[in-house]
Amino acid sequence: MSFLSSYKPPAAPAAPAAPAAPATPAATSVPPRPAVPSTRPQLPDSLFPRYAKMIYDLSGMKFDQNKSYFLASKIDNRVKALGLKGFDDYLAYIESPSGRSESAFLIDEVSINETFFYRHEPQLQAFLQEILLPLTFARKTQRQTKFRIWSAAASTGDELYTLALMIKDAGLLNQGMTFELVGTDISHEALKKAREGVYKKYNIRNIPPAVLTHNFKHDPATETWRINDDMRAICRFQEMNLMDPSRTQALGVFDVIFCRNVLIYFDDGSKEQVVKNMCSVLKDDGVILLGHSENVYSQRHILRPDKTRTASIAHIKAPPGTLKHDV
Ligand SMILES: C[S@@+](CC[C@H](N)C(=O)[O-])C[C@H]1O[C@@H](n2cnc3c(N)ncnc32)[C@H](O)[C@@H]1O
Q: Which of 155, 191, 242 to mutate to test the pocket of ligand 1 (most atoms within 8 A of CB)?
């Protein structure tokens, strides 16, 4: 008998006993879980229209009912900051004579200040080639020595400083033309940041590396970038409501107006007021640049796409006396 034929492998260790199947729960009815109260602040339906109307009257921004949670969380920040009890008390306070200055804080809170340098670059490049270079050249031949640009919803200044950087990069500074760049916004807090000119990585991420190196001072301790003083010197910022015709008039006339990514928050009524205000300070051959998802179709009798330029990147004034049904 060979070794192999007599070999018996050691008995395999006994398999662990299968865990006992869990007992099938008795088909008893499970009591409903007690509702966990939501921690999200909620605006009562009775107050939403009052707040929405107040914000609309103050700024032209239109908030529909589906933005109720957004408004509630923003208003709640003010309720807490003032140590008030709730939305009712805050409304009573802001409507009282002693709460008059509070409206600026409310608008600061609800305004959406999203912006960054070199936003929507294709439009900016087309602006440089098709508007800025030919228009500054035309102004020189007209013996005009000042070129004025307005960033009408400037937020934290990224858009206005981008224009200053582009003007410098194109070699237009110190060529016998003074550039005056004005940034306005309704938000006091956003403008404070604009004047400081200090930005985080998110805001500067699209700046061409050479432009960033030459025009900003990097602070590695705070990982922020501060725009240099020569750029700050040609930009100024001022608080202003775009709905206000007399404040708009006080700005003086402009060759170019950037009004990007703000009309989306307005309804047709406030849009028309803003468009009229802007056209009243735009030179006859000046241009207005809107955000790429914005349209002023309902205001086409005042402002219309400039079909002579790439993909209608700019808008121009409609001839005076144009009626809506004429266009
Ligand atoms: C989304 S930011 C646009 C910033 C910049 N133009 C851009 O495109 O990157 C919109 C800005 O519009 C401002 N705004 C809203 N209503 C306004 C009003 N009635 N007058 C002036 N600024 C207003 C807000 O405070 C906010 O800073």
A: 155
**Section 118-128 average pLDDT:** 95
Whether the CB-CB separation of 243 and 59 falls below 8 Å is answered with yes
Is residue 25 scored above 70 in pLDDT? no
Structural domain includes residue 206: yes
Indicate whether residue 303 lines ligand 1 (CB < 6 A): no
Domain that holds residue 93: 48-110
Q: From the CB of 273, is ligand 1 less than 6 Å away?
A: no
Indicate whether residue 248 lines ligand 1 (CB < 6 A). Answer: no
Same domain, 102 and 140: no
Q: Whose CA is nearest to atom 3 of ligand 1?
A: 261
Number of domains in the chain: 2
Q: What are phi and psi of 210, to 5 degrees?
A: -65, -35
Residue 217 has pLDDT above 50, yes or no: yes
Cα(83) to centroid of ligand 1, in Å? Answer: 28
Q: How far apart are CA 184 and CA 197, in angstroms?
A: 15
CATH number, domain of 162, equals: 3.40.50.150
pLDDT score of 37: 66
pLDDT tens-digit series, residues 306-317: 988 876 689 999
Angle at 61 between CA 59 and CA 63, to 5 degrees: 135
pTM: 0.88
